[in-house]
Write a structure and sequence with these properties.
Length: about 240
């Protein structure tokens, strides 16, 4: 499977006067370099529970060193700790920076047990030896720090990346490839699962490559394509 090889970073404004929660969620994006696109994202005011996915943006380092950096930062700036994790208004004052790359990186999903499934059998991820999804995107960190400085904000990373050294992705793509038959893929060119008439897959799992940007419109385009191939339902006029 693939993702957008992404990172979820952000900035929390220190001002209580701002309200970034009103308006369209995603209005623009720009290229930080040849392979990296960044989208500023806003969330509605009631989304402050997402604060517990955030973590101080740390400098490069191994796990323990990075953890020590974050703890030291929280101890040195207790007010910032309260603003990030305790005080109300997190969603109103936060801009999420969705960092995505067009790099063709993979992950593998399998049925298994792990601490994240509480050792029950479930779907767990397994990193690829090569083309692994990056745990840290340096250009994204640079842009986040610059954005926070310009907006008088607190630069934020993600808990997965900063504490666990695990990539956090919002878009899981692929896993149900197209093919002429069941030997080549999961679905046919009409998005119908081979050997299962009437069963269709129309979501991010049929996207064959990493677009490097938010895939919502691509998924919508696939859905329109699939629906255009559906036979029209013929109804009998009883009047």
């Amino acid at each position: 499977m693939r993702s957008n090889s992404e990172a979820l970073l952000g900035s929390l404004s220190r001002s209580r006067q701002v309200d970034y929660s009103k308006g369209i969620a995603i209005t623009s994006f720009f290229h930080a370099d040849d392979v990296t696109a960044i989208e500023p994202v806003r969330y509605p005011a009631g989304s402050s529970l997402m604060r517990f996915l955030s973590w101080p943006l740390t400098r490069p380092g191994k796990g323990l060193a990075r953890f020590s950096q974050a703890v030291a930062q929280l101890v040195r700036h207790p007010l910032e700790f309260l603003m990030v994790y305790v005080l109300p208004g997190w969603a109103k004052r936060t801009t999420i920076l969705l960092v995505m790359q067009t790099e063709d990186n993979h992950l593998r999903m399998r049925l298994g047990r792990s601490i994240y499934t509480l050792f029950r059998r479930g779907l767990v991820s397994q990193v690829e030896a090569e083309q692994n999804i990056p745990h840290r995107i340096e250009s994204g960190h640079r842009v986040t720090r610059a954005f926070a400085q310009k907006s008088q904000g607190i630069a934020l990373g993600s808990l997965n990346e900063g504490l666990l050294d695990v990539a956090l992705t919002a878009h899981v793509l692929g896993g149900c490839p197209f093919g002429n038959d069941a030997e080549e893929g999961v679905i046919g060119l009409d998005c119908q699962v081979h050997n299962y008439p009437g069963l269709y897959v129309v979501d991010g799992s049929i996207i064959p490559a990493n677009p490097g940007v938010n895939p919502s419109l691509t998924i919508a385009a696939f859905a329109e394509y699939a629906m255009s191939l559906m036979p029209e339902k013929v109804t009998e006029d009883r009047h």
